[in-house]
């Protein structure tokens, strides 16, 4: 069984179990959940569950491995293997406990402290970015989806990078465009971007943000 409490905490700030797109880690945890989660008790898990469910036909072909997902199956498991370690952790300020407390050890400590301070001083300001999964719905099954996607990708803006895409069936022969993009938060407003896409009114009925995660 999946540890829904731990999964809820994890998905509160993430769209997927690991990385920025559906993977085998998501499939592994999805299959460990017996029934759809209660949206009132686990809103983040419920949102993620429905999203991964929409990929049901592609579960076997999704990339990655189930390793990260194992952290959320069962009661006690380690944090996901894909979790990034803090950059500062790779600087050992005080060396091994086995080092002798002598002049040589003190010299090594001083060098490590100096290297740590230099690294801190040299760190560039981090640019805030987000990975967004955007869904664009056409008017009907006769809408030219290739032309729709071409129109969407024609939008160029500083701080906007279009990624992969796919067509997802939504019923009655209609398919929606699901496209991934990376935006610099200070330069690109997702609301304004959706307004620009809506201007392609010959193709676009509506747009929705299916997932959004900070980088």
UniProtKB/TrEMBL annotation:
GO cellular component terms attached to this protein's record: cytosol; eukaryotic translation elongation factor 1 complex
Source domain of life: Eukaryota
Pfam families: EF-1_beta_acid, EF1_GNE
Keywords from the UniProt entry: Elongation factor, Protein biosynthesis
A GO term for molecular function: translation elongation factor activity
Record's compositionally biased regions (Low complexity): 74-84
Region listing for Disordered, in residue ranges: 66-91
Domain Translation elongation factor EF1B beta/delta subunit guanine nucleotide exchange: from-to ranges: 129-215
Keyword Protein biosynthesis carried by entry: yes
Start and end residues of each Elongation factor 1 beta central acidic region eukaryote domain: 93-120
Family: Belongs to the EF-1-beta/EF-1-delta family.
Protein name: Translation elongation factor EF1B beta/delta subunit guanine nucleotide exchange domain-containing protein
Annotated source species: Pleurotus ostreatus (strain PC15) (Oyster mushroom)
């Amino acid at each position: 069984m999946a540890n829904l409490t731990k999964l809820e905490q994890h998905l509160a700030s993430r769209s997927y179990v690991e990385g920025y797109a559906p993977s085998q880690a998501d499939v592994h945890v999805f299959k460990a959940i017996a029934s759809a989660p209660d949206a009132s008790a686990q809103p983040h898990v419920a949102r993620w569950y429905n999203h991964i469910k929409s990929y049901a036909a592609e579960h076997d072909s999704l990339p990655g491995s189930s390793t990260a997902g194992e952290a959320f199956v069962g009661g006690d498991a380690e944090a996901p293997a894909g979790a990034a370690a803090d950059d500062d952790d790779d600087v050992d300020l005080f060396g091994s406990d086995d080092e002798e407390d002598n002049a040589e050890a003190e010299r090594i400590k001083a060098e490590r402290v100096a290297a740590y301070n230099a690294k801190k001083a040299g760190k560039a300001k981090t640019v805030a970015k987000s990975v967004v999964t955007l869904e664009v719905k056409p008017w009907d099954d006769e809408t030219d989806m290739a032309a729709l996607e071409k129109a969407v990708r024609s939008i160029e803006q500083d701080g906007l990078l279009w990624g992969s895409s796919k067509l997802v069936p939504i019923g009655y022969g209609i398919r929606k465009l699901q496209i991934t993009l990376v935006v610099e938060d200070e330069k690109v407003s997702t609301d304004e971007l959706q307004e620009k896409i809506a201007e392609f009114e010959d193709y676009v009925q509506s747009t929705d943000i299916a997932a959004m995660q900070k980088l």
